[in-house]
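To: structure subgroup
Subject: Chain for Friday's discussion

All,

I'm putting the inputs and outputs inline so they're searchable in the archive.
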Amino acid sequence: DRPPDMIGVSNYVWNYHVGRAILSAAKKANPEVVTVMGGPNATLTESKMTHLLADGLIDYYVPDNDAGGEIPFCNLVEAKLANVWPLHKNEGANSLWYLNKDTGQAQHIPAGPSKNTMDWLPSPFQKGLADEFFEDGLAAMIETNRGCPFHCTFCVWGAQDNNSTVTQFSVESVKANLDYIAERVHQDLLMINDANFGLFNNRDIEIARHIKKLNQERNWPVSIIVNWGQVRSDASIAVADELKGITMLRQSSQSQDEDVLAAIKRDNVPDSQWKHVAEECRRDGIESFAELIIMLPGETLETYLNGLRYFFDLGINCINTNQCQLLEGAEMNTEEYREKYGVKTSWRLLENAYGRYHDYVCLEAEEVVIETNTFSFEDNILCRKLNWLIQMSWTLRRHNLILKLLQEYQVSPADFLLYVISQVDRAPKELLELFKDFDRDARDELFPTYNDVVEHYSTDDRIKSLQTGGFKKLNTYYAGKALIFNRQVVQFYCQMAKELLSQQERFTEQFEDLLRDCSTFTEELSLSAKTITEIESGNTSMDKTLSFTYDIVAWEADTNQRSLSDFRVKHPLQYRFFTRPDQNNAIHNYLKELSRKDKDYQLQKMCEPFYGIRKEHLNYSCQTA
Protein backbone atom coordinates (compact mmCIF):
# COMPACT_ATOMS: atom_id res chain seq x y z
CA ASP A 1 0.00 0.00 0.00
CA ARG A 2 2.93 2.34 0.67
CA PRO A 3 5.85 1.35 -1.54
CA PRO A 4 9.12 2.76 -0.20
CA ASP A 5 10.96 5.63 -1.85
CA MET A 6 14.24 4.14 -0.63
CA ILE A 7 15.13 0.72 0.73
CA GLY A 8 18.32 -0.85 2.07
CA VAL A 9 19.23 -4.50 2.71
CA SER A 10 22.30 -6.11 4.23
CA ASN A 11 24.41 -8.59 2.30
CA TYR A 12 25.91 -11.67 3.92
CA VAL A 13 26.40 -15.17 2.56
CA TRP A 14 23.21 -16.22 4.41
CA ASN A 15 20.82 -13.54 3.02
CA TYR A 16 22.08 -12.33 -0.37
CA HIS A 17 19.31 -13.84 -2.50
CA VAL A 18 16.46 -12.94 -0.18
CA GLY A 19 17.89 -9.40 -0.13
CA ARG A 20 17.81 -9.26 -3.90
CA ALA A 21 14.23 -10.54 -3.85
CA ILE A 22 13.24 -7.71 -1.49
CA LEU A 23 14.82 -5.13 -3.77
CA SER A 24 13.12 -6.71 -6.79
CA ALA A 25 9.73 -6.52 -5.08
CA ALA A 26 10.40 -2.87 -4.19
CA LYS A 27 11.29 -2.04 -7.82
CA LYS A 28 8.08 -3.66 -9.04
CA ALA A 29 6.01 -1.72 -6.51
CA ASN A 30 7.74 1.58 -7.25
CA PRO A 31 10.03 1.79 -10.31
CA GLU A 32 11.49 5.04 -8.92
CA VAL A 33 12.64 3.49 -5.62
CA VAL A 34 16.31 3.90 -4.69
CA THR A 35 17.75 0.52 -3.72
CA VAL A 36 20.83 0.12 -1.53
CA MET A 37 22.69 -3.03 -0.55
CA GLY A 38 25.57 -3.14 1.93
CA GLY A 39 27.82 -5.56 3.73
CA PRO A 40 30.87 -7.78 3.38
CA ASN A 41 29.57 -10.34 0.85
CA ALA A 42 30.99 -8.66 -2.24
CA THR A 43 34.29 -8.62 -4.10
CA LEU A 44 35.29 -4.97 -4.35
CA THR A 45 36.86 -4.89 -7.79
CA GLU A 46 35.58 -2.93 -10.77
CA SER A 47 34.75 -6.04 -12.80
CA LYS A 48 32.98 -7.85 -9.94
CA MET A 49 31.04 -4.78 -8.87
CA THR A 50 30.06 -4.05 -12.47
CA HIS A 51 28.60 -7.56 -12.67
CA LEU A 52 26.77 -7.07 -9.36
CA LEU A 53 25.23 -3.74 -10.40
CA ALA A 54 24.71 -4.36 -14.12
CA ASP A 55 21.05 -5.44 -14.02
CA GLY A 56 19.96 -2.23 -12.27
CA LEU A 57 18.46 -3.98 -9.25
CA ILE A 58 20.98 -2.37 -6.88
CA ASP A 59 21.44 1.39 -7.30
CA TYR A 60 24.13 1.78 -4.63
CA TYR A 61 26.40 -0.61 -2.80
CA VAL A 62 27.86 0.32 0.59
CA PRO A 63 30.82 -1.93 1.48
CA ASP A 64 32.18 -2.53 4.95
CA ASN A 65 34.76 -0.10 6.26
CA ASP A 66 36.41 0.58 9.61
CA ALA A 67 33.33 2.25 11.12
CA GLY A 68 30.64 0.35 9.25
CA GLY A 69 28.09 1.34 6.65
CA GLU A 70 25.82 3.63 8.66
CA ILE A 71 27.43 6.97 7.74
CA PRO A 72 27.60 6.32 3.95
CA PHE A 73 23.99 5.11 4.02
CA CYS A 74 22.88 8.12 6.07
CA ASN A 75 24.48 10.37 3.46
CA LEU A 76 22.33 8.74 0.77
CA VAL A 77 19.19 9.21 2.90
CA GLU A 78 20.15 12.86 3.45
CA ALA A 79 20.54 13.32 -0.30
CA LYS A 80 17.13 11.75 -0.96
CA LEU A 81 15.45 14.02 1.60
CA ALA A 82 17.17 17.06 0.06
CA ASN A 83 16.16 16.02 -3.49
CA VAL A 84 19.78 15.78 -4.56
CA TRP A 85 20.07 13.73 -7.73
CA PRO A 86 22.00 11.58 -8.35
CA LEU A 87 22.40 10.80 -4.67
CA HIS A 88 26.15 10.28 -4.88
CA LYS A 89 26.55 13.96 -5.76
CA ASN A 90 25.62 14.87 -2.20
CA GLU A 91 28.36 16.66 -0.29
CA GLY A 92 30.42 14.22 1.75
CA ALA A 93 29.22 11.10 -0.10
CA ASN A 94 31.71 8.32 0.61
CA SER A 95 32.26 4.57 0.61
CA LEU A 96 29.87 3.89 -2.28
CA TRP A 97 29.78 1.87 -5.46
CA TYR A 98 27.37 2.72 -8.29
CA LEU A 99 27.05 2.02 -12.00
CA ASN A 100 28.27 4.83 -14.22
CA LYS A 101 25.58 5.10 -16.90
CA ASP A 102 27.98 6.62 -19.42
CA THR A 103 30.67 3.93 -19.20
CA GLY A 104 28.57 0.97 -18.07
CA GLN A 105 31.25 0.29 -15.44
CA ALA A 106 31.07 0.31 -11.65
CA GLN A 107 32.51 3.43 -10.07
CA HIS A 108 33.81 3.79 -6.53
CA ILE A 109 33.74 6.73 -4.12
CA PRO A 110 36.36 5.99 -1.42
CA ALA A 111 35.61 5.88 2.30
CA GLY A 112 35.97 9.01 4.40
CA PRO A 113 38.26 9.41 7.41
CA SER A 114 37.91 6.80 10.16
CA LYS A 115 36.48 7.76 13.55
CA ASN A 116 38.32 7.07 16.78
CA THR A 117 35.37 5.53 18.62
CA MET A 118 31.95 4.10 17.81
CA ASP A 119 30.02 6.21 20.33
CA TRP A 120 28.70 8.48 17.57
CA LEU A 121 26.36 5.61 16.64
CA PRO A 122 23.02 5.65 18.53
CA SER A 123 22.16 2.41 20.27
CA PRO A 124 19.37 0.45 18.52
CA PHE A 125 18.66 -1.19 21.88
CA GLN A 126 18.20 2.01 23.87
CA LYS A 127 16.12 3.47 21.05
CA GLY A 128 13.72 0.55 21.58
CA LEU A 129 14.23 -0.85 18.08
CA ALA A 130 14.98 -4.37 19.35
CA ASP A 131 12.07 -4.64 21.82
CA GLU A 132 9.72 -6.37 19.39
CA PHE A 133 12.38 -8.95 18.58
CA PHE A 134 12.95 -9.68 22.26
CA GLU A 135 9.20 -10.19 22.60
CA ASP A 136 9.42 -12.71 19.76
CA GLY A 137 12.00 -14.66 21.76
CA LEU A 138 15.13 -13.78 19.78
CA ALA A 139 18.54 -13.61 21.45
CA ALA A 140 20.61 -10.44 21.77
CA MET A 141 23.69 -9.76 19.66
CA ILE A 142 26.04 -6.92 20.57
CA GLU A 143 29.32 -5.44 19.41
CA THR A 144 31.89 -3.93 21.76
CA ASN A 145 34.19 -3.06 18.86
CA ARG A 146 34.36 -3.26 15.08
CA GLY A 147 37.05 -4.42 12.72
CA CYS A 148 39.90 -6.91 12.77
CA PRO A 149 43.65 -6.26 12.67
CA PHE A 150 44.41 -9.63 11.05
CA HIS A 151 44.39 -10.46 7.32
CA CYS A 152 43.55 -14.17 6.94
CA THR A 153 43.06 -15.03 3.27
CA PHE A 154 39.85 -17.02 3.86
CA CYS A 155 38.13 -14.14 5.67
CA VAL A 156 36.87 -10.64 4.84
CA TRP A 157 36.62 -9.35 8.41
CA GLY A 158 40.15 -7.97 8.32
CA ALA A 159 40.62 -7.74 4.55
CA GLN A 160 43.14 -5.14 3.45
CA ASP A 161 41.55 -1.69 2.98
CA ASN A 162 38.37 -3.00 4.55
CA ASN A 163 38.01 -3.58 8.31
CA SER A 164 41.74 -3.69 9.00
CA THR A 165 41.60 -1.37 12.01
CA VAL A 166 39.55 -1.67 15.17
CA THR A 167 37.27 1.00 16.61
CA GLN A 168 35.61 0.60 19.99
CA PHE A 169 32.35 1.40 21.69
CA SER A 170 33.02 2.90 25.12
CA VAL A 171 32.71 0.61 28.11
CA GLU A 172 29.91 2.82 29.44
CA SER A 173 27.84 2.43 26.27
CA VAL A 174 28.39 -1.36 26.24
CA LYS A 175 27.27 -1.61 29.87
CA ALA A 176 24.20 0.53 29.18
CA ASN A 177 23.21 -1.75 26.30
CA LEU A 178 23.68 -4.85 28.43
CA ASP A 179 21.56 -3.38 31.23
CA TYR A 180 18.79 -2.49 28.80
CA ILE A 181 18.83 -5.96 27.23
CA ALA A 182 18.83 -7.75 30.59
CA GLU A 183 15.56 -6.05 31.55
CA ARG A 184 13.72 -7.10 28.38
CA VAL A 185 15.18 -10.19 26.73
CA HIS A 186 13.53 -13.62 27.13
CA GLN A 187 16.29 -15.68 25.53
CA ASP A 188 19.14 -16.91 27.78
CA LEU A 189 21.81 -16.54 25.12
CA LEU A 190 24.04 -13.50 24.45
CA MET A 191 26.21 -13.29 21.34
CA ILE A 192 29.20 -10.93 21.32
CA ASN A 193 29.97 -10.32 17.66
CA ASP A 194 33.43 -8.81 17.97
CA ALA A 195 36.05 -10.37 15.74
CA ASN A 196 38.47 -10.63 18.68
CA PHE A 197 36.91 -10.29 22.13
CA GLY A 198 39.56 -10.21 24.85
CA LEU A 199 42.02 -8.37 22.63
CA PHE A 200 41.73 -5.20 24.74
CA ASN A 201 42.74 -6.46 28.14
CA ASN A 202 41.52 -4.18 30.97
CA ARG A 203 38.57 -2.90 28.96
CA ASP A 204 37.28 -6.38 28.13
CA ILE A 205 37.78 -7.57 31.70
CA GLU A 206 35.56 -4.71 32.88
CA ILE A 207 32.88 -5.69 30.35
CA ALA A 208 33.18 -9.35 31.37
CA ARG A 209 32.74 -8.47 35.03
CA HIS A 210 29.58 -6.54 34.21
CA ILE A 211 28.20 -9.52 32.28
CA LYS A 212 28.98 -11.81 35.21
CA LYS A 213 27.25 -9.36 37.56
CA LEU A 214 24.12 -9.46 35.39
CA ASN A 215 24.29 -13.25 35.34
CA GLN A 216 24.39 -13.38 39.14
CA GLU A 217 21.77 -10.68 39.77
CA ARG A 218 19.33 -11.24 36.87
CA ASN A 219 20.19 -14.80 35.76
CA TRP A 220 21.08 -13.43 32.31
CA PRO A 221 22.92 -14.30 30.20
CA VAL A 222 23.02 -18.01 30.98
CA SER A 223 25.39 -18.69 28.08
CA ILE A 224 27.54 -16.59 25.76
CA ILE A 225 28.86 -17.16 22.25
CA VAL A 226 32.02 -15.12 21.70
CA ASN A 227 34.90 -14.97 19.21
CA TRP A 228 38.13 -14.80 21.20
CA GLY A 229 41.14 -12.98 19.80
CA GLN A 230 43.89 -14.78 17.91
CA VAL A 231 46.43 -13.42 20.38
CA ARG A 232 46.08 -15.24 23.69
CA SER A 233 47.51 -13.80 26.91
CA ASP A 234 47.14 -14.06 30.68
CA ALA A 235 44.78 -11.11 30.50
CA SER A 236 42.42 -12.86 28.07
CA ILE A 237 42.44 -15.91 30.33
CA ALA A 238 41.42 -13.54 33.11
CA VAL A 239 38.53 -12.35 30.92
CA ALA A 240 37.47 -15.96 30.37
CA ASP A 241 37.80 -16.61 34.10
CA GLU A 242 35.30 -13.83 34.78
CA LEU A 243 32.85 -15.59 32.45
CA LYS A 244 33.55 -19.09 33.74
CA GLY A 245 30.49 -21.29 33.63
CA ILE A 246 28.67 -19.28 30.97
CA THR A 247 31.18 -19.40 28.13
CA MET A 248 34.26 -21.25 26.91
CA LEU A 249 37.74 -20.07 25.95
CA ARG A 250 37.54 -20.37 22.19
CA GLN A 251 40.58 -20.31 19.91
CA SER A 252 40.23 -20.56 16.15
CA SER A 253 43.61 -21.96 15.16
CA GLN A 254 42.36 -23.13 11.71
CA SER A 255 45.53 -25.24 11.23
CA GLN A 256 48.55 -26.34 13.24
CA ASP A 257 50.81 -26.65 10.20
CA GLU A 258 53.27 -23.79 9.68
CA ASP A 259 53.20 -23.97 5.87
CA VAL A 260 49.40 -23.84 5.82
CA LEU A 261 49.39 -20.90 8.22
CA ALA A 262 51.81 -19.04 5.98
CA ALA A 263 49.58 -19.70 2.95
CA ILE A 264 46.54 -18.24 4.72
CA LYS A 265 48.46 -15.38 6.39
CA ARG A 266 47.51 -16.60 9.82
CA ASP A 267 49.40 -15.89 13.03
CA ASN A 268 48.75 -18.68 15.46
CA VAL A 269 49.14 -19.02 19.19
CA PRO A 270 52.59 -20.46 20.07
CA ASP A 271 52.74 -24.00 21.40
CA SER A 272 53.92 -22.81 24.82
CA GLN A 273 50.97 -20.47 25.10
CA TRP A 274 48.46 -23.14 24.00
CA LYS A 275 49.79 -25.41 26.75
CA HIS A 276 49.52 -22.58 29.24
CA VAL A 277 45.93 -21.91 28.17
CA ALA A 278 45.01 -25.59 28.50
CA GLU A 279 46.55 -25.84 31.96
CA GLU A 280 44.91 -22.64 33.18
CA CYS A 281 41.50 -23.68 31.85
CA ARG A 282 41.81 -27.10 33.43
CA ARG A 283 42.84 -25.58 36.77
CA ASP A 284 40.09 -22.94 36.81
CA GLY A 285 37.31 -25.11 35.36
CA ILE A 286 36.99 -23.03 32.19
CA GLU A 287 35.77 -24.92 29.15
CA SER A 288 38.30 -24.74 26.30
CA PHE A 289 37.52 -24.75 22.60
CA ALA A 290 39.73 -25.20 19.52
CA GLU A 291 38.60 -24.67 15.95
CA LEU A 292 40.13 -25.92 12.72
CA ILE A 293 39.27 -25.47 9.05
CA ILE A 294 39.54 -28.48 6.79
CA MET A 295 40.64 -28.24 3.13
CA LEU A 296 42.84 -25.18 3.56
CA PRO A 297 45.53 -24.65 0.89
CA GLY A 298 48.55 -26.87 1.45
CA GLU A 299 46.88 -28.97 4.15
CA THR A 300 47.20 -32.74 3.86
CA LEU A 301 45.27 -35.48 5.59
CA GLU A 302 48.22 -36.13 7.89
CA THR A 303 48.85 -32.47 8.84
CA TYR A 304 45.13 -32.06 9.53
CA LEU A 305 45.08 -35.20 11.72
CA ASN A 306 48.17 -33.96 13.53
CA GLY A 307 46.24 -30.81 14.43
CA LEU A 308 43.43 -32.92 15.89
CA ARG A 309 45.90 -35.09 17.81
CA TYR A 310 47.56 -31.97 19.20
CA PHE A 311 44.33 -30.62 20.69
CA PHE A 312 43.29 -34.02 22.04
CA ASP A 313 46.69 -34.31 23.75
CA LEU A 314 46.20 -30.88 25.33
CA GLY A 315 42.82 -31.98 26.70
CA ILE A 316 40.82 -29.28 24.90
CA ASN A 317 37.15 -29.85 25.79
CA CYS A 318 35.59 -28.92 22.45
CA ILE A 319 37.24 -29.52 19.07
CA ASN A 320 35.35 -28.24 16.06
CA THR A 321 36.14 -28.35 12.34
CA ASN A 322 34.59 -26.13 9.69
CA GLN A 323 34.66 -26.79 5.97
CA CYS A 324 36.74 -24.21 4.09
CA GLN A 325 34.34 -21.76 2.47
CA LEU A 326 35.13 -19.38 -0.38
CA LEU A 327 33.65 -15.99 0.50
CA GLU A 328 33.16 -13.03 -1.79
CA GLY A 329 35.86 -10.48 -1.06
CA ALA A 330 38.30 -12.98 0.47
CA GLU A 331 41.78 -13.22 -0.98
CA MET A 332 41.40 -16.99 -1.20
CA ASN A 333 38.45 -16.59 -3.57
CA THR A 334 40.46 -15.63 -6.66
CA GLU A 335 41.28 -17.57 -9.81
CA GLU A 336 45.01 -17.29 -9.05
CA TYR A 337 44.58 -18.77 -5.58
CA ARG A 338 42.32 -21.57 -6.82
CA GLU A 339 44.75 -22.53 -9.57
CA LYS A 340 47.83 -22.41 -7.34
CA TYR A 341 46.40 -24.84 -4.79
CA GLY A 342 44.23 -26.96 -7.09
CA VAL A 343 41.07 -25.86 -5.32
CA LYS A 344 37.88 -27.64 -6.38
CA THR A 345 34.55 -26.59 -4.89
CA SER A 346 30.90 -27.51 -4.60
CA TRP A 347 27.82 -25.65 -3.41
CA ARG A 348 25.58 -26.68 -0.53
CA LEU A 349 22.45 -25.29 1.05
CA LEU A 350 22.73 -23.17 4.20
CA GLU A 351 20.63 -24.07 7.22
CA ASN A 352 17.48 -22.01 7.80
CA ALA A 353 18.24 -19.81 4.77
CA TYR A 354 15.46 -20.71 2.39
CA GLY A 355 11.80 -20.00 1.81
CA ARG A 356 9.01 -19.20 -0.63
CA TYR A 357 7.68 -15.65 -0.42
CA HIS A 358 4.79 -15.04 -2.82
CA ASP A 359 6.40 -15.46 -6.24
CA TYR A 360 9.96 -15.60 -4.92
CA VAL A 361 11.83 -18.77 -4.02
CA CYS A 362 14.94 -17.75 -2.08
CA LEU A 363 17.72 -20.21 -1.34
CA GLU A 364 21.08 -19.33 0.16
CA ALA A 365 24.07 -21.59 -0.39
CA GLU A 366 27.79 -21.65 0.38
CA GLU A 367 30.68 -22.54 -1.90
CA VAL A 368 32.91 -25.01 -0.03
CA VAL A 369 36.27 -26.54 -0.88
CA ILE A 370 35.99 -30.29 -1.44
CA GLU A 371 39.43 -31.06 -2.89
CA THR A 372 42.89 -29.48 -3.28
CA ASN A 373 46.14 -30.63 -4.85
CA THR A 374 47.19 -31.94 -1.41
CA PHE A 375 43.88 -33.26 -0.01
CA SER A 376 41.64 -35.67 -1.96
CA PHE A 377 37.86 -35.65 -2.06
CA GLU A 378 37.65 -39.15 -0.55
CA ASP A 379 39.89 -38.13 2.36
CA ASN A 380 37.62 -35.12 2.82
CA ILE A 381 34.60 -37.45 3.09
CA LEU A 382 36.54 -39.61 5.57
CA CYS A 383 37.17 -36.53 7.72
CA ARG A 384 33.51 -35.56 7.56
CA LYS A 385 32.70 -38.86 9.31
CA LEU A 386 35.56 -38.37 11.75
CA ASN A 387 34.38 -34.89 12.70
CA TRP A 388 30.84 -36.14 13.25
CA LEU A 389 32.17 -38.69 15.74
CA ILE A 390 34.42 -36.10 17.42
CA GLN A 391 31.48 -33.73 17.89
CA MET A 392 29.17 -36.47 19.13
CA SER A 393 31.59 -38.41 21.30
CA TRP A 394 34.04 -35.78 22.59
CA THR A 395 32.58 -32.29 22.32
CA LEU A 396 29.09 -33.32 23.42
CA ARG A 397 30.71 -35.57 26.06
CA ARG A 398 28.67 -38.56 25.08
CA HIS A 399 31.58 -41.03 24.95
CA ASN A 400 34.50 -38.86 26.04
CA LEU A 401 35.33 -41.05 29.07
CA ILE A 402 36.11 -44.02 26.83
CA LEU A 403 38.31 -41.78 24.69
CA LYS A 404 39.99 -40.32 27.77
CA LEU A 405 40.74 -43.82 29.07
CA LEU A 406 42.33 -44.72 25.72
CA GLN A 407 44.55 -41.66 26.01
CA GLU A 408 46.01 -43.18 29.18
CA TYR A 409 47.12 -46.06 26.95
CA GLN A 410 48.75 -43.70 24.40
CA VAL A 411 45.93 -43.90 21.85
CA SER A 412 44.73 -40.57 20.46
CA PRO A 413 40.94 -40.25 20.17
CA ALA A 414 41.50 -39.20 16.55
CA ASP A 415 43.24 -42.49 15.75
CA PHE A 416 40.72 -44.55 17.67
CA LEU A 417 37.76 -42.97 15.86
CA LEU A 418 39.51 -43.50 12.52
CA TYR A 419 39.83 -47.16 13.46
CA VAL A 420 36.12 -47.28 14.32
CA ILE A 421 35.32 -45.87 10.87
CA SER A 422 37.59 -48.42 9.18
CA GLN A 423 35.80 -51.30 10.95
CA VAL A 424 32.23 -50.03 10.71
CA ASP A 425 31.20 -52.89 8.41
CA ARG A 426 31.37 -55.04 11.55
CA ALA A 427 29.21 -52.66 13.59
CA PRO A 428 25.67 -53.41 14.77
CA LYS A 429 23.15 -53.05 11.98
CA GLU A 430 21.75 -49.74 13.27
CA LEU A 431 25.19 -48.11 13.45
CA LEU A 432 26.27 -49.49 10.08
CA GLU A 433 23.15 -48.09 8.43
CA LEU A 434 23.77 -44.73 10.12
CA PHE A 435 27.29 -44.57 8.68
CA LYS A 436 26.04 -45.48 5.21
CA ASP A 437 23.38 -42.79 5.43
CA PHE A 438 25.93 -40.23 6.59
CA ASP A 439 28.26 -41.05 3.71
CA ARG A 440 25.40 -40.76 1.22
CA ASP A 441 24.20 -37.45 2.62
CA ALA A 442 27.74 -36.00 2.76
CA ARG A 443 27.97 -36.57 -0.99
CA ASP A 444 24.40 -35.74 -1.92
CA GLU A 445 24.42 -32.31 -0.21
CA LEU A 446 27.06 -31.10 -2.70
CA PHE A 447 26.15 -29.55 -6.06
CA PRO A 448 28.37 -28.35 -8.92
CA THR A 449 26.86 -24.84 -9.06
CA TYR A 450 24.53 -22.56 -7.11
CA ASN A 451 21.92 -22.94 -9.86
CA ASP A 452 21.96 -26.70 -9.33
CA VAL A 453 21.14 -26.10 -5.64
CA VAL A 454 18.20 -23.93 -6.67
CA GLU A 455 16.94 -26.44 -9.23
CA HIS A 456 17.05 -29.29 -6.71
CA TYR A 457 15.42 -27.59 -3.72
CA SER A 458 12.96 -25.08 -5.19
CA THR A 459 9.99 -27.40 -5.70
CA ASP A 460 6.99 -26.83 -3.43
CA ASP A 461 7.40 -30.22 -1.75
CA ARG A 462 11.09 -29.74 -0.98
CA ILE A 463 10.62 -26.20 0.33
CA LYS A 464 7.84 -27.42 2.65
CA SER A 465 10.01 -30.31 3.78
CA LEU A 466 12.91 -27.96 4.57
CA GLN A 467 10.66 -25.68 6.59
CA THR A 468 9.42 -28.52 8.82
CA GLY A 469 12.88 -29.93 9.48
CA GLY A 470 13.97 -31.54 6.24
CA PHE A 471 17.37 -29.85 6.34
CA LYS A 472 20.17 -32.02 7.70
CA LYS A 473 23.14 -30.34 9.34
CA LEU A 474 25.00 -33.59 9.22
CA ASN A 475 27.09 -33.65 12.41
CA THR A 476 24.22 -32.61 14.65
CA TYR A 477 21.57 -34.53 12.70
CA TYR A 478 23.43 -37.82 13.04
CA ALA A 479 24.44 -37.12 16.63
CA GLY A 480 20.71 -36.84 17.31
CA LYS A 481 19.88 -40.01 15.39
CA ALA A 482 22.56 -41.96 17.29
CA LEU A 483 20.85 -41.13 20.60
CA ILE A 484 18.21 -43.69 19.70
CA PHE A 485 20.69 -46.57 20.02
CA ASN A 486 23.50 -45.11 22.08
CA ARG A 487 23.97 -48.39 23.96
CA GLN A 488 24.99 -50.16 20.74
CA VAL A 489 27.42 -47.35 19.93
CA VAL A 490 29.08 -47.68 23.35
CA GLN A 491 29.35 -51.45 23.03
CA PHE A 492 30.93 -51.20 19.57
CA TYR A 493 33.38 -48.58 20.83
CA CYS A 494 34.38 -50.95 23.64
CA GLN A 495 34.86 -53.84 21.23
CA MET A 496 37.04 -51.66 18.97
CA ALA A 497 39.05 -50.30 21.92
CA LYS A 498 39.99 -53.77 23.15
CA GLU A 499 40.77 -54.89 19.62
CA LEU A 500 42.98 -51.89 18.83
CA LEU A 501 44.94 -52.18 22.08
CA SER A 502 45.42 -55.91 21.42
CA GLN A 503 46.87 -55.13 17.99
CA GLN A 504 49.26 -52.68 19.63
CA GLU A 505 50.10 -55.20 22.39
CA ARG A 506 48.84 -52.83 25.08
CA PHE A 507 45.70 -54.69 26.15
CA THR A 508 45.63 -55.76 29.81
CA GLU A 509 43.08 -57.22 32.17
CA GLN A 510 43.21 -53.97 34.12
CA PHE A 511 42.18 -52.05 30.98
CA GLU A 512 39.20 -54.36 30.55
CA ASP A 513 38.24 -53.73 34.18
CA LEU A 514 38.55 -49.96 33.76
CA LEU A 515 36.67 -50.04 30.45
CA ARG A 516 33.81 -51.99 32.03
CA ASP A 517 33.13 -49.20 34.54
CA CYS A 518 33.67 -46.49 31.90
CA SER A 519 31.28 -48.05 29.41
CA THR A 520 28.54 -48.61 32.01
CA PHE A 521 28.86 -45.03 33.22
CA THR A 522 28.84 -43.75 29.62
CA GLU A 523 25.74 -45.76 28.69
CA GLU A 524 23.82 -44.49 31.70
CA LEU A 525 24.97 -40.85 31.57
CA SER A 526 23.39 -39.74 28.27
CA LEU A 527 19.71 -38.97 28.14
CA SER A 528 18.13 -41.35 25.66
CA ALA A 529 15.74 -40.17 22.98
CA LYS A 530 12.96 -41.91 24.95
CA THR A 531 13.90 -40.04 28.15
CA ILE A 532 13.90 -36.71 26.31
CA THR A 533 10.42 -37.48 24.98
CA GLU A 534 9.21 -38.25 28.52
CA ILE A 535 10.62 -34.95 29.80
CA GLU A 536 8.87 -33.18 26.94
CA SER A 537 5.57 -34.71 28.01
CA GLY A 538 6.04 -33.48 31.60
CA ASN A 539 7.53 -36.53 33.33
CA THR A 540 10.26 -35.26 35.70
CA SER A 541 10.90 -38.38 37.81
CA MET A 542 14.16 -39.35 36.06
CA ASP A 543 16.26 -41.07 38.71
CA LYS A 544 18.38 -44.23 38.91
CA THR A 545 21.23 -45.61 41.08
CA LEU A 546 24.09 -47.85 39.94
CA SER A 547 27.20 -49.37 41.52
CA PHE A 548 30.81 -48.74 40.35
CA THR A 549 34.31 -49.88 41.24
CA TYR A 550 36.01 -46.60 40.32
CA ASP A 551 35.16 -43.02 41.29
CA ILE A 552 34.64 -41.85 37.71
CA VAL A 553 33.17 -38.49 38.67
CA ALA A 554 36.29 -37.61 40.68
CA TRP A 555 38.52 -38.87 37.84
CA GLU A 556 36.78 -36.69 35.26
CA ALA A 557 37.01 -33.63 37.53
CA ASP A 558 40.66 -34.22 38.49
CA THR A 559 42.90 -31.32 37.40
CA ASN A 560 46.12 -33.27 38.02
CA GLN A 561 45.42 -35.69 35.15
CA ARG A 562 45.80 -38.83 37.27
CA SER A 563 44.90 -42.21 35.81
CA LEU A 564 41.50 -43.81 36.37
CA SER A 565 43.23 -46.70 38.12
CA ASP A 566 44.17 -44.24 40.90
CA PHE A 567 40.46 -43.81 41.68
CA ARG A 568 39.62 -47.40 42.57
CA VAL A 569 37.45 -47.55 45.71
CA LYS A 570 37.61 -50.16 48.47
CA HIS A 571 33.87 -50.75 48.47
CA PRO A 572 31.37 -50.48 45.59
CA LEU A 573 30.43 -46.85 44.98
CA GLN A 574 26.77 -45.98 44.48
CA TYR A 575 26.10 -43.23 41.93
CA ARG A 576 22.73 -41.56 41.62
CA PHE A 577 21.83 -40.41 38.08
CA PHE A 578 19.05 -37.83 37.97
CA THR A 579 17.71 -34.85 36.03
CA ARG A 580 17.44 -31.44 37.71
CA PRO A 581 14.31 -29.25 37.61
CA ASP A 582 16.12 -26.52 35.66
CA GLN A 583 17.29 -29.14 33.18
CA ASN A 584 13.79 -30.55 32.72
CA ASN A 585 12.41 -27.05 32.21
CA ALA A 586 15.14 -26.17 29.69
CA ILE A 587 14.48 -29.31 27.64
CA HIS A 588 10.70 -28.87 27.83
CA ASN A 589 10.85 -25.22 26.77
CA TYR A 590 13.40 -25.85 24.03
CA LEU A 591 11.29 -28.56 22.45
CA LYS A 592 8.21 -26.37 22.78
CA GLU A 593 9.95 -23.73 20.65
CA LEU A 594 10.60 -26.43 18.03
CA SER A 595 7.14 -27.98 18.23
CA ARG A 596 6.42 -27.24 14.56
CA LYS A 597 9.48 -29.19 13.47
CA ASP A 598 9.73 -32.96 13.11
CA LYS A 599 11.36 -35.12 15.80
CA ASP A 600 14.58 -35.72 13.87
CA TYR A 601 15.10 -31.99 13.55
CA GLN A 602 14.34 -31.44 17.24
CA LEU A 603 17.02 -33.96 18.23
CA GLN A 604 19.39 -32.38 15.71
CA LYS A 605 19.00 -28.92 17.22
CA MET A 606 19.42 -30.26 20.74
CA CYS A 607 22.78 -31.69 19.68
CA GLU A 608 24.11 -28.33 18.48
CA PRO A 609 27.25 -28.03 20.63
CA PHE A 610 27.34 -24.22 20.76
CA TYR A 611 24.01 -22.73 19.68
CA GLY A 612 21.54 -25.31 20.93
CA ILE A 613 20.54 -26.34 24.41
CA ARG A 614 23.36 -26.38 26.98
CA LYS A 615 25.14 -29.66 26.37
CA GLU A 616 25.21 -30.63 30.05
CA HIS A 617 21.40 -30.77 29.81
CA LEU A 618 21.79 -33.77 27.50
CA ASN A 619 23.35 -35.81 30.32
CA TYR A 620 22.10 -36.88 33.72
CA SER A 621 23.53 -35.17 36.76
CA CYS A 622 25.52 -37.61 38.85
CA GLN A 623 26.47 -37.67 42.50
CA THR A 624 27.31 -40.19 45.19
CA ALA A 625 24.13 -41.81 46.49
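Points worth raising on Friday:
The CA atoms of residues 150 and 158 lie 5 Å apart.
The radius of gyration is 26 Å.

D.
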